[in-house]
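Researcher: We're teaching a course module on how sequence relates to structure. For the next exercise, students receive a sequence and then see the predicted structure as tokens, so they can try to spot secondary structure elements on their own. Here is the exercise chain.
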Amino acid sequence: MIRVQIVETIPIYLIGLVSLYSQQEFEVAGTATSTSDYLSWHADVIIVDSQAVNTGLEKGALTQVARIAPVIVIADDVSDRFVDQCAQAGAAAVIERTASATVVHETTRKTLRGKDFRNRVSPGVALPPAARKSALSPREQQVLHHVARGLTHYEIARLLNISQHTVETYVKRIRGKVGRGNKAVLTRAAVLGNLH
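Model: And here is the predicted structure for the students to work with:
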């Protein structure tokens, strides 16, 4: 059994990660919302949200966490610069938040086997066969990410500097492409990287 400690600042993603790591040979050893919270010494690997890392990269927070167990950073944007910063701070891997459950599980296994996996991991969102031809556009992915964070259409519109009506149009397109009508189910699928 692989014991996983999760540090996640966004509640809906925390729920998704707990669900993701409650499968197969994984077990959640504990959860936290900050790297300064108590982290279990019994964890085999620690999954850390990039938001929890960004503020602490310069202060060595990630380096301290990496002393407990190998660290995998979950990030929205895995630019080469950010991946390099995480690697220098002691992270064993960086995974894009939209990666599929298979990618997340395999990365976790490789990290525990000592593989050098400090590279960008491609997003692994599994779309249904009908939707593969019409994959989500970058803007639709951005809107879906904010929906999954629990933001309202109004909040997303303000954040992206677009109209609320435009956000509603993007949400309708996303539902059409991935075959999901219920926003809660769509959000859960997005969090788990399992849009099929």
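Model: If you want an answer key for the exercise: The beta strands are 2-7, 26-32, 45-49, 71-75, 93-96. Residues 116-134 have pLDDT under 50 and may be disordered.
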